[in-house]
Amino acid sequence: MVNQKEEICTDIGKAMGTFLRITSYGRPQGEVSKAVRAYFRNVENLCSRFRSDSDVSRISAAAGVKPVMVSSLCRDVCRCSLREAAFTGGIFDPTVGALTSLWNIGGENERIPSEEEIEKAKVLIDYKHIEIGERSVFLKEKGMSLDLGGIAKEYALHQAAALAEHMGECSMMIDAGGDICVVGNKPDGSAWRLGIQHPRQRSTLIATVALGSEDTVETSGDYRRFLLKDGLMQSHIFQIKKKIPLISATLIYKRNGEMLPVSGAACIAGGLDKVREWLERIPRLEGIFITEDLQAYVTEGISDRVRILTKDADRRALIRHEYEGECHGSY
Predict the structure, then answer these.
(1) Keyword Amino-acid biosynthesis: yes or no (predicted)?
(2) Do residues 259 and 179 touch, judged by C-beta distance below 8 A?
(3) How many other CB atoms sit within 10 Å of the CB of residue 26?
(4) Cα→Cα distances 222→2, 198, 237, 250, Å
(5) Among the listed ranges 188-192, 200-204, 278-282, 291-295, which one has the minimum average pLDDT value?
(6) Tens of pLDDT along 92-117?
(7) Helix (H) or strand (E) holding 290
(8) Cys bridge to 206: 66, 160, 198, 216, which one at CB 3.0-4.6 A?
């Protein structure tokens, strides 16, 4: 066992509209940290709708006109987004850019669009109108707009963690705005224990979870980015009508080389009822899901490793694994 006083090195910066914190345990990992940060920059340069020269912006500019030759990385992110769109039945839809660009939450000139603008934008949202060629991506209808914000950061996180693993033995935590991948084991032999942000109290944790075989924790919430104006709060995640709304969704699992077919953002958009349905189809996926009245629903597989830290939150069990149909993928 390594001495617990062994060096901890932290590299803090920004990436993809949030912070990027890379923590190395045991010995400095400067070259690995540099490669991880460069990978995030590359994904942002290619997939951000806020950059006029990105692949995503060029695809949207040519919507309904012609396919656009783009990088293999952008095509891969688009394929992952279509897989999630199909799995969630369109609750997650990468063509939501026609709507998100009206509000422009997180960018310049945030505003509240008119109901007429919103209704016109909704007509242009349909992931089935994305065509991915061998080297190109095409939005078939004029006025459509691509927004990969709900998946690009998670894609960068997964690939950066795989890159760190490939570069050699290391003990590292990569934290991109609260979405975390751990690489290797902690030198002192203890379990990785990660905190979950309280969705209604800044700088406060609502829960912690000790990882077992899992190595990835992704949290989405309506509080991450939002527009607050004239008494209206609009999250960057556009929600559908549902029986039990969620304000925070944390997904906990072990990476296996492919993206999950569902994201935390999709869980927020779909609500607890859809989450129950999706969990049944992905048996190895664990999670913590928090409703508007601060009920914390914890999946059974991690129930003994989760601690609720605040008195305002009540813990509820979320029992599942009763699905008798076909499970999805290898998760």
Answers:
(1) no
(2) no
(3) 20
(4) 40, 11, 6, 12
(5) 200-204
(6) 999 998 888 776 655 566 667 677 87
(7) strand 286-291
(8) 198
Cα(151)–Cα(93) distance, integer angstroms: 10
φ/ψ of 233, rounded to 5, equals: -110, 115
Tokens coding 23:
């923590």
Dist CA 35 CA 172 (whole Å): 13
DSSP 206: E
What confidence tier does 235 reach under pLDDT thresholds 50, 70, 90?
A: very low
Known binding-site positions for Mg(2+)? 150
DSSP notation for 57-68: HHHHHTTTT--E
Cα–Cα dist 161/172, whole Å: 9
Structural domains for the chain = 8-39+151-318 (3.10.520.10), 50-139 (1.10.3980.10)
* In the predicted structure, residue 168 carries a pLDDT above the cut 50: yes
Partners of 176 in the β-ladder: 20, 179
Which amino acid type is present at position 236?
Answer: H
Closest C-alpha among 287, 260, 229, 256 to residue 150: 260
Feature table: binding site: 150
Q: 10 Å Cβ neighbour count for 214? A: 22
